[in-house]
Amino acid sequence: MTAALEPSASTAPASLFLTDLTTVSTRRRVKNSVMTALMGMSVAIVAVVLFFVLATVVIKGWSIVASEFPKWFTKDIQLSPRRPGPGMKAAIVGTLVATATATAIAVPLGIAGAVYLNEYGKRSLFARTLRFLSNVMAGVPSIVMGLFIYVFWVVPRGVDGLNGFSGALALACLMLPIVVRSTEEMLRLVPQNLRDASLALGATTSRTTLTVVIPRAASGIISGSLLAVARSAGETAPLIFTIGAAKRTNWNPFSGTNTSLSLQIYANAKESFPTAQERAWGAALTLIIVAFMFTFVARALSARFAKNSTS
Amino acid sequence: MAVTLDDLKGNKQLADRTFRGATLIGGTAIAVILALIAWTIASKSSLAFRTEGLSFFTERRWAPADNVFGALSFIYGTAVTAVIAVVLAVPVSLGIALFTTHLAPGWLKRPLVAMIDLVAVVPSVVFGLWGIIFLAPKLVPVFTKLSSWSHGIPVLGSIFGKASAGRTFMTAGLILALMIIPIITSISREVILTCPPTDSDGALALGATRWEMITGAVLTHSAGGIVGAVMLGLGRAMGETIAAALVIGSSPAITANLFSPGDSLPSVIAFEWGEATSDTKRSALIAMGLTLFLMTLLVNFIATLVVNRAMKRMRGES
How many Cβ atoms sit within 10 Å of the Cβ of residue A251? Predict the structure, then answer.
């Protein structure tokens, strides 16, 4: 920079000095433009790839879902992968049952944990350790969660251990740290003077938390939980060892094997029969719609939450 | 006066304490589950370690029929695919993070961030399906061309070796890169946004171009947090199972050639579980799960420390 300024400062008249100061050397300008273009390109790359993935899923998935409509949603899964034929109801029901059960376990537990961290533990060593551990737990590979539930829950129960509930346990392990972290963040956003006001009126911490803090943060908490639900609905690895491999619809999480959309995609993607691959695309479309729906609702809620907490 | 003020206080305190206890259960659940994971998986792996000893980690051969269970080629595959993913994902993620913080016009920022988040919503098995049926066949000619171009160049020649299939280390690395871009981007964005405007405006006022401002003020400020974000991405890439299992090729190999099929820890566990009928083989697969758990634990442990420290320092400064 000094090299560019020196000659003009010593020899040129004042007017030239000014122009020199405002023009940037070609090399620096070119570098700036190239880097700007590269930054724009990285956005474009991801946008194009995402578009390709979604377009492929929608086009290939739609052709089977539409041609089998409404049987796709009402019939069980074809027993032989090489035969054409309708049905993904068993997997849709399985995904719903496992995800709902996992939500029923993980969300209350996670919210309780977050309340402890933010309202009681605060900056204590114990709370900080738990916070750290929840970050660590969020990084545990989903397949390890599956193995854990297999060893811990399925093996002791033998063949009966493979059911929707076991799969839900594995999914709940995956959801728990996500719910804890997002809920704590939302609780932290609740203004302290609301708590102080409630405590000054004689309410206990528990009453303050239940009637003042949580209602205030509710839409944020729900939004974070829905994102966790969307993520677990798409998970495959934890279910491989825990849920079994049913082809028939099973609404009961506690008895009998089950299946899920993600497992059906995984199993059919490995097959070389076109009929199986078609089925995989159809299941992928169904699954993506489910995951996007949860995410969309979560986003809408968190937008509302953001508006509430700033006003 | 059946109820005195003291009674009320006692009741209230009891309720308060019960509530506190209930929330404590939620808090400690995390610690308990983590401990249980480590303990149960370690205890179920013991059979494999008794049969193989420590050579489990150094043996290249995986031959369940001969009772030889070596994890080395799977550990190698996990490391290689994760490194490919990070190398490919980091520049793109940083580019996106910088674009959405410093370049994009205001109205474009939110939709762009939402789009990147959408990548994270697509289930991993869907990426795997797309990878195996759509992408892998299209990659074979690309790999062949790259390998013929780089033939004879010292390092590149052996990394871009002979391409025979579409399901390779590189394919898995590509899909994994796509999957870790959202997490690296979002954490980098958060870190970059904590850069005080006085720094970046000051750099611009001194006559720096936008890029010079970014390298001089923003990136030096955010370096620590970005390193942490990259490590979290690395941990995610190592543990990602289903997408990798579908596109990596499932044939264990230790080779420098990235265009050859290989295998990784999570993918072999998912792939061979159904065929694992003997106790020793199941135990060996669980031992691989333990290895993976420890590897990701180490990476995430360091990453969390780095991110926390960087965040704390930046908040203290600004």
Answer: 11
Locate all alpha helices (DSSP H) within A68-191, ordered by sequence: 71-74, 89-115, 125-138, 142-149, 155-157, 164-188
Within 13 Å of residue A172, how many CA atoms lie on the same side as its CB? 26
**Nearest Cβ partner of B207 from A1, A45, A262?**
A1
Which of A236, A232, A234, A223 is closest to A295 using CA atoms?
A223
Structure tokens at A92: 């849709």
DSSP B202-269: HHHHTT--HHHHIIIIIIHHHHHHHHHHHHHHHHHHHH--HHHHHHS-S-----S-TTS----HHHHH
Chain B residues whose beta carbon lies within 8 Å of the beta carbon of residue A141: 238-241, 266, 292-293, 296
Pairing of β B68-69 and β B62-63: antiparallel
User: Which among A42, A143, A292 has CB closest to B269?
Assistant: A143
Nearest chain A alpha carbon to B104: A40
Residues 6 or more apart in contact with residue A110 via CB below 8 angstroms: A175, A176, A177, A178, A179, A180, A183, A225, A228, B26
Grouping H, G, I as helix, E, B as strand and the rest as coil, residue B147 is helix
Domains of chain B: 52-317 (1.10.3720.10)
Mutation target for A interface from B41, B129, B134: give the one with most A CBs within 10 A.
B129
What is the reported pLDDT for A20?
54
Looking at per-residue pLDDT, the higher value among A106 and B164 belongs to A106
Query: CB B115 to CB A46 under 8 A?
Result: yes
A236: nearest CB among B122, B178, B242: B242
B123-158 tens-digit pLDDT: 999 999 999 999 999 999 999 999 888 888 888 888
User: Do the beta carbons of residue A64 and residue A281 sit within 8 Å?
Assistant: yes
Nearest partner of A105 among A97, A117, A116, judged by Cα: A97
Rounded to two decimals, the pTM is 0.89
Residue corresponding to tokens 């939302």? A186
* Helix (H) or strand (E) run with residue B154 in it: helix B154-159
Three-state SS at B69 = strand
Instruction: Kindly report, residue by residue over B216-240, the tens digit of the pLDDT.
Output: 999 988 888 899 899 999 999 999 9
Helices and strands in chain A, H and E counts? 15, 0
Q: Please give the residue of chain A at the shortest CA–CA distance from B101.
A: A39
CB contact (8 A) between residue A42 and residue B91: yes
CB B31 within 8 A of CB A133: yes
DSSP state of A86: -
